[in-house]
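Section 3.1 - Work completed
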Amino acid sequence: LAALMVLGRRAVAGLALGLFAGNLFDGGPIEVGDTPAAAVVALGELAQGGLAAALLRTFPRELPRNPVRQTLRFALAITLCGLVAPTVGMLAWRLFAPAQDAQPAFGWLAGWLGGVTGMLVLTPALLMQFHARLRDDRLTVQPFPLICLGLGLTAFCTFATGVGVRDAQAERFKADASRLAMTLQNHVDLTARDLE
């Protein structure tokens, strides 16, 4: 997003190639459906960044006038545009490589939240560093990176805590189910002995 907001269309080719390579070479072996899926996922991620950049086209000009309101506009645009890539990605992986995702809804949620968090945490710092209009007026626009960092880290911590609680509850359920199965088996054994 920062590259598209700073460089515009000049960044598209490099972003597309990097996104495709990142999705294709994800650390696992390359299988039959991976290449088309990686291409579709990269297009979805590029479309997400392009949509956000288009919605935020006037953002650098308007940010110094009303930093808090424009920062919240930035966060809302990021949050809504962040729906594009995980949706396209989930559909692409299910279409081209259906065996890879055991929990598609959780994968979608993690992809959406990860993308939004990444854009909220990294994009403001990159824009403050590389966008000429924001670099020149750092004092006025100082709330922008701070609010975005707070929102992004809060979202991530809330999600991570929720996942931890979910995993703890799943482990507790497995332990309770195991104890219940042992108790039932003991009752069955006792009943069988009594019937003998």
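Second construct:
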Amino acid sequence: EGAIVNRDGYLQQIDGMAWGPDPRDGVIEGTTFIHPGLRFAFDAPQDMKLQNSPDAVVGQADNAAMIFDLASPAPSGSMEQYVASQWQEGAKISNVQSFEVNGMEAATGVATGTINNTQVAIRMVAIRQSANTVYRFMYATPPGSFNAMDRQFIASAQSFRGISAEEASGYAPKRIRVVTVREGDTVQSLAQQMQV
């Protein structure tokens, strides 16, 4: 026979329940990645589709790819030294330069490599957020596209910034809200109440 369903009890249980990814682990808004828990944000190159995972933020566009992650363990020397010889040991890194990103020590260099048997030029950027925290960007594109794309790669890395506690608090988990349909409600009037 049929199961007994406690409809009202079930609806009470799910009302207010969080759903979807936890914003404390990072939020993607178009090509911007915001991490309220660690209080930083950055803008990926134009047209890049971002995907967040526990270990990295990965971006993919028609002719480029990006990986953003945390250097572990954090290097103790200069960012220039790290990019030149420690990040990819044994790799030939050219055009190594130090610079600042929003007051943070940073360095960049260029390398070559392969992705899925395709030759790529790689822009590497390391940014020291604090003594124990270094974030890394790796941008890759076919060598023939590198000069055209590199300005976007650098602009993306330079967009790395801290966010205030107030800005971070604006990202709350999405919650299920049980709504009773009343006479006169329409699909449109109910949809306008949704936070999605």
